[in-house]
Amino acid sequence: MEKTWRWFGPNDPITLDMLRQIGVEGIVTALHHIPNGEIWTEEEVCKMKDFITRHGLRWSVVESLPVSEEIKYAGPHRDELIEKYKISLANLGKAGVKTICYNFMPVLDWARTDLEYPNPDGTSNLYFNRAEFAYFDIHILKRKDAEKDYDDATLRRMNEKVKPLMSPEAEKRLVDNIIVKTQGFVNGNISEGDLDPVGKFRDLLKLYEGIDADALRNNMAYFLNSIMPVCDEYGIDMCVHPDDPPLQILGLPRIVTCDDDIQKFLESVPNPHNGLTFCAGSLSAGAHNDVVELAKKYAKRTHFVHARICKVMPDGDFKESSHLDPRLIEVVRIFEQTRPGVPMRVDHAPLMLGDEKMGYNAGYSFHGRMLALGEIAGVMATVGTESK
Predict the structure, then answer these.
(1) Which residues, at least 6 apart from 27, have a Cβ–Cβ distance to it below 8 Å?
(2) Helix/strand/coil for 17
(3) 348 is a catalytic site residue
(4) Over the stretch 333-353, which tens digit does the pLDDT of each residue have?
(5) Selected catalytic residue, list 273, 303, 323, 348
(6) Per-residue pLDDT tens digits for 111-127
(7) Is 306 assigned a catalytic role?
């Protein structure tokens, strides 16, 4: 696999020179300065590509060319936005950037309740506490009938262990972790400058009232069928990112959570340019998913790999786990043997060796990812010797 790294542009404190020195071969990035729904011009695409090339690297993957909410819920400007998306795709294709990671998650890109959960060795990881998430949903967001979406054990844990510890400061931290700090840096719907993120979030949720999973699947198929001619013309591979976490949350439809979901979206648009970002971390955050079996089944329709893994607790909580987890080693083996050359990046690595002081985007530390890249590179080298 090609060793790539998610980089957030020229203002990223992690520089391309640093990445070249640690063995990175390809860059995963986006034109983050362009608002969602606007066209990525040939000039802007070439400017980014040339900047990366001058540093001895390759722009391997776009992550992400965002799909506007109005495309997802089929608003009145859907076709206009899809036409703009097609122009951006064509401009990327002309520049030779041909792997596009995107997601079709409504409103929320990904969710964690704790961005610095302490580990015994002094590092910290991202963590999802289901009882804390229920508190956010029920008592902060105040979503109607939200309590019906949680089992009795989670509600009991929320009332007994979470609620007594909540203060205005703790509630603000929970809001920041769930809908602000994990969203803004990925061209999300909420940014740190928003004065009322909870109110804005409520308004976004209303856009999906009456839209169930089948409707969202139909909207996704409409979008993909519309852009496939451009993908065919320029050889562009679209690879959807699984829902993170792969669970039904906040009353929103989620349609890339499991084997059945993946099968449905691939069958709905059978064009080989319609494929998957195999994020072992997102998929493994659901106890219902066997990531090794999913890797075997969908390797041929995978255009991009995220090498990370999660450990799910008995109560439904989950945390980012070691990149040397045996399941992830087996996933790497599968893709090394069946998809040579496919771009792969590590992510959601621990904060360590002062990473926590550097202001990195949540989940995207330097030292932690460097360690993870070294570990995965070692696994790849070992797998390479096995096949000789």
Answers:
(1) 4, 5, 7, 16, 19, 52, 57, 58, 59, 60, 61
(2) helix
(3) yes
(4) 999 999 999 999 998 999 999
(5) 348
(6) 999 999 999 999 999 99
(7) yes
